[in-house]
């Protein structure tokens, strides 16, 4: 099918990504000035959530309403998806009724299978492998505070998870260096490391990763779906807590980001979100603006390029 999808950062060109970030900033400004902008009037977003969410759900739903459209929340519990309807069949039917679909799921193949059968754009709202929408917000946040991220150094501390994988793709697309500090056995995707290895240094030493970094980012130690491993992970990840002291080893003007939800006392110290170097709340807000730019780009590209 010919629809344009956003399943990973690699689905857009670097130029398109930068223009999405700029557009997110423009849409944020319009909203702050109280200007109504409704290019998606009568358009409908379907949101399939197989995992919990606060930010992704609220930002997509509020974003569609602000753009003049509507969003429908779909959980497998009360759709036929939960009773075994093949994902491809659901994609054929839903995409005949909707204008765009967002899916938060476990296996990344659910997204690719849905997309392969969809007439309309499909957006990855997080899979076990990737979380590209969060990276749009993170990149917008860095641009707002510090300008271009090209040539900068980013440190990822903790689990080599879906967020970390998307940071690797972002390093390639936005032209920065990434240092990942994680315990042995918790490295990011070997496939991505093989592809973009020249962008990424993997170490077990958080200090080595953070030294001189312009951005430090982390995430929970046990992601959704890993609840049973949580206890064992707590012990393994203990040396990887991000603290004010660790940030002191980074660049003078370092920014700290966390995609949230945060577990204070685990992956971050109790006080880290209160540190002036943390921009986690701006980052969370930017999910709204960045995804509005994405929705506009996928559903009404004419406005995006206006
Ligand atoms: N960061 C993020 O995706 O948050 P939610 O799980 O609340 O959507
Ligand atoms: N890595 C986390 C991100 C949550 C937004 C998870 O997948 O649960």
From TrEMBL:
<dbReference type="InterPro" id="IPR002292">
    <property type="entry name" value="Orn/put_carbamltrans"/>
</dbReference>
<dbReference type="Pfam" id="PF00185">
    <property type="entry name" value="OTCace"/>
</dbReference>
<feature type="binding site">
    <location>
        <position position="80"/>
    </location>
    <ligand>
        <name>carbamoyl phosphate</name>
    </ligand>
</feature>
<feature type="binding site">
    <location>
        <begin position="53"/>
        <end position="56"/>
    </location>
    <ligand>
        <name>carbamoyl phosphate</name>
    </ligand>
</feature>
<dbReference type="InterPro" id="IPR006132">
    <property type="entry name" value="Asp/Orn_carbamoyltranf_P-bd"/>
</dbReference>
<dbReference type="InterPro" id="IPR006130">
    <property type="entry name" value="Asp/Orn_carbamoylTrfase"/>
</dbReference>
<dbReference type="Pfam" id="PF02729">
    <property type="entry name" value="OTCace_N"/>
</dbReference>
<feature type="binding site">
    <location>
        <position position="287"/>
    </location>
    <ligand>
        <name>carbamoyl phosphate</name>
    </ligand>
</feature>
<dbReference type="InterPro" id="IPR024904">
    <property type="entry name" value="OTCase_ArgI"/>
</dbReference>
<feature type="binding site">
    <location>
        <begin position="259"/>
        <end position="260"/>
    </location>
    <ligand>
        <name>carbamoyl phosphate</name>
    </ligand>
</feature>
<comment type="similarity">
    <text>Belongs to the aspartate/ornithine carbamoyltransferase superfamily. OTCase family.</text>
</comment>
<dbReference type="InterPro" id="IPR006131">
    <property type="entry name" value="Asp_carbamoyltransf_Asp/Orn-bd"/>
</dbReference>
<feature type="domain" description="Aspartate/ornithine carbamoyltransferase carbamoyl-P binding">
    <location>
        <begin position="4"/>
        <end position="143"/>
    </location>
</feature>
<keyword id="KW-0963">Cytoplasm</keyword>
<feature type="domain" description="Aspartate/ornithine carbamoyltransferase Asp/Orn-binding">
    <location>
        <begin position="151"/>
        <end position="297"/>
    </location>
</feature>
<dbReference type="GO" id="GO:0042450">
    <property type="term" value="P:L-arginine biosynthetic process via ornithine"/>
</dbReference>
<dbReference type="GO" id="GO:0016597">
    <property type="term" value="F:amino acid binding"/>
</dbReference>
<feature type="binding site">
    <location>
        <begin position="223"/>
        <end position="224"/>
    </location>
    <ligand>
        <name>L-ornithine</name>
    </ligand>
</feature>
<dbReference type="InterPro" id="IPR036901">
    <property type="entry name" value="Asp/Orn_carbamoylTrfase_sf"/>
</dbReference>
<keyword id="KW-0808">Transferase</keyword>
<comment type="pathway">
    <text>Amino-acid biosynthesis; L-arginine biosynthesis; L-arginine from L-ornithine and carbamoyl phosphate: step 1/3.</text>
</comment>
<feature type="binding site">
    <location>
        <begin position="131"/>
        <end position="134"/>
    </location>
    <ligand>
        <name>carbamoyl phosphate</name>
    </ligand>
</feature>
<dbReference type="GO" id="GO:0005737">
    <property type="term" value="C:cytoplasm"/>
</dbReference>
<dbReference type="GO" id="GO:0019240">
    <property type="term" value="P:citrulline biosynthetic process"/>
</dbReference>
<feature type="binding site">
    <location>
        <position position="162"/>
    </location>
    <ligand>
        <name>L-ornithine</name>
    </ligand>
</feature>
<feature type="binding site">
    <location>
        <position position="104"/>
    </location>
    <ligand>
        <name>carbamoyl phosphate</name>
    </ligand>
</feature>
<dbReference type="GO" id="GO:0004585">
    <property type="term" value="F:ornithine carbamoyltransferase activity"/>
</dbReference>
<feature type="binding site">
    <location>
        <position position="219"/>
    </location>
    <ligand>
        <name>L-ornithine</name>
    </ligand>
</feature>
<protein>
    <recommendedName>
        <fullName>Ornithine carbamoyltransferase</fullName>
        <ecNumber>2.1.3.3</ecNumber>
    </recommendedName>
</protein>
